[in-house]
Design brief:
By secondary structure, the protein is mainly alpha-helical. The protein is 77% helix and 0% strand. The chain has helices spanning 3-18, 21-30, 35-57, 69-93, 96-103, 106-117, 124-141, 152-175, 181-210, 212-236, 242-248, 251-262, 270-286, 295-300.
């Protein structure tokens, strides 16, 4: 399989696994964990799981240069931790529909930053794919079928969640030429856990001791919806531009919507179907080969 195509499918796979997170988050929420607790629990167990894998396979991947710590502070503390904080703040003050729509403005931020930092080309089909993706997410979340006034402060925080979510693609793109994807993912989890430890470590420990089942659920969340997708996504960044990866990963709300319908009995509307079609369309659009010049253009050029 062509490297670029393989990388694209890796990113899509990551988005699909992230879309399954609601299965485990709802179980942990029912067990008494707050949103911040789940963020800490998830990243701590993910760091432990991946750390064991690395120790068995190749301990040299645990070594990083002190001067490069800023990259992992970026992916972990700045991107993952702040994205979660802003996202949960928005969820508490608006509907899931509004929060999800604002979060998935991330590809727009990735495209803007990638053009400024990495000098990626701004093409018509990339702009079209982003517009179609945002429209698809809007349809899936149900934003068009509900009138929901939202305070401007909540909108700003929701957009911030999209911005911080987008930064993982940017920091990851800088770290990958120097480190293995597993190394980048491991230290991302470590620093994200460190950022939230002061607020949640004690409570999570008490719950895990009182309810051992939560530890099993947390491990499943760490492996299936954290370690595996982050490795796929970070590895996929080697073969596709950051802006394209961010759009491909928005298969996440598509999978989440399907699970909501099948598992949790969420309503299945025409807007949901349209949203899924639009997101799939944007993914296919990004896989189109770049436009080639015709023979006459080459001769005349």
């Amino acid at each position: 399989m062509h490297t670029k195509t393989k990388s694209a499918w890796m990113v899509v796979g990551a988005g699909a696994l992230w879309g399954m997170i609601s299965l485990f988050v709802r179980a942990l929420d029912a067990a008494g964990m707050s949103s911040l607790d789940i963020v800490f629990f998830r990243n701590l167990l993910a760091a432990a799981t991946l750390g064991i894998v690395i120790a068995v396979r190749d301990r040299s991947m645990l070594r990083i240069q002190l001067r490069d710590i800023w990259m992992f502070i970026g992916t972990g503390m700045v991107s993952i931790a702040l994205f979660n904080f802003c996202y949960f703040y928005t969820l508490a003050r608006s509907s899931v529909a509004v929060a999800a729509l604002l979060l998935y403005t991330a590809p727009v931020f990735v495209l803007i930053v990638s053009i400024l930092l990495f000098h990626e080309r701004l093409t018509v089909h990339r702009l079209a794919a982003i517009a179609i993706t945002v429209a698809g997410c809007a349809c899936i979340t149900g934003i068009f079928s509900h009138a929901q006034p939202v305070a401007w402060t909540t909108v700003v925080c929701g957009l911030a969640s999209g911005f911080f979510y987008a930064l993982y693609s940017i920091f990851g793109k800088v770290a990958l030429p120097r480190y293995n994807a597993m190394t980048v993912s491991f230290y991302t989890f470590v620093f994200a856990a460190l950022a939230t430890a002061p607020f949640s470590a004690v409570h999570c420990t008490e719950l895990a001791l009182e309810q051992p089942r939560t530890l099993l659920i947390g491990l499943a969340l760490a492996v299936m919806c954290t370690v595996a997708p982050f490795l796929l996504y970070t590895g996929g960044l080697k073969g596709v531009p950051a802006s394209q990866a961010a759009v491909l990963a928005t298969v996440e709300p598509l999978v989440g919507s399907l699970l909501g319908i099948v598992v949790f009995g969420d309503p299945f509307t025409v807007w949901t179907v349209l949203g899924m079609a639009l997101i799939l369309g944007s993914i296919l659009l990004l896989q189109l080969p770049p436009r080639r010049h015709s023979a006459s253009e080459k001769i005349n050029g």
